[in-house]
UniProtKB/TrEMBL annotation:
Family note: Belongs to the glycosyl hydrolase 25 family.
Cell membrane is among the record's keywords: no
Alphabetical list of PROSITE patterns matching this protein: GLYCOSYL_HYDROL_F25_2 (PS51904)
Family matches, as Pfam families: Glyco_hydro_25
Protein name: Glycoside hydrolase family 25 protein
GO MF annotations, alphabetized: lysozyme activity
UniProt-listed Gene3D superfamilies: Glycosidases
Organism field: Rhizobium grahamii
């Protein structure tokens, strides 16, 4: 197999990161000077009561640095969707210049429950029913290929309309050259000035028009 080459700025001009408290204190001004950090999706909440201890700090500092921000919720399979939505509402401000709310759907780091397709779609539906359109834009669903195949492939209509944020480390996703996905997480070991240690790297699909309006300076060049 040929070695993996990360996506270039020429092919994927809008790139960014996702972070949580695991990255520690972040120098957002240093990040903003780097062309590969146009957006940052930061962990806000998990389950029904956990809040990331650095979310409020990161949310403000990223905006002050001029980086487009988004918040994500780690969706646990062991708490009702409505409880999780209420946790998010208490934590994440509603701001029109932010990315839509993202939810992280994965087994890694989750509780031991493996929901059925019916259970998962019902709880995600309850989650967004509780949000009741409070945050602008259709949500972003973070999945890896396995989770997509197990729950979403052929069943997309059972879930709220969404942008797909696909984790595919070290290989191009198989989703029709990005016509079916919006954000690609292509690395979990990136190195950037302003962050001590590894960080996840992402790229926005160049044909994703639903989110590109948040990047007027970059898309105009």
């Amino acid at each position: 197999m040929a070695p993996f080459t990360p996506p270039t700025l020429a092919d994927y001009p809008i790139q960014g990161i996702d972070v949580s408290h695991h990255q520690g204190a972040i120098d957002w001004q240093a990040l903003a000077r780097q062309p590969k950090v146009r957006f940052a999706i930061m962990k806000a909440t998990e389950g029904g009561d956990h809040r990331d201890k650095r979310f409020a700090e990161n949310w403000k500092a990223a905006k002050d640095a001029g980086i487009v921000r988004g918040a994500y919720h780690f969706f646990t399979f062991c708490r009702p969707g409505r409880e999780q939505a209420r946790n998010l509402i208490k934590t994440v401000p509603v701001e029109t210049d932010a990315l839509p709310i993202a939810i992280d759907l994965e087994f890694t780091g989750n509780c031991g429950k493996v929901p059925t397709s019916d259970e998962l779609s019902a709880e995600i539906g309850a989650f967004f029913a509780e949000l009741n359109g409070a945050y602008p834009g259709k949500p972003i669903f973070y999945l890896n290929q396995q989770f997509f195949e197990q729950y979403f492939k052929g069943n997309e209509a059972r879930f709220p309309d969404h942008h797909l944020w696909l984790r595919s480390i070290a290989q191009e996703p198989h989703q029709n050259d990005c016509r079916d996905w919006s954000i690609w997480q292509f690395a979990d070991n990136g190195t950037l000035d302003g962050i001590h240690g590894p960080v996840d790297l992402n790229a926005l699909c160049p044909s994703e028009t639903g989110l590109a309006h948040l990047f007027p300076v970059l898309t105009a060049n």
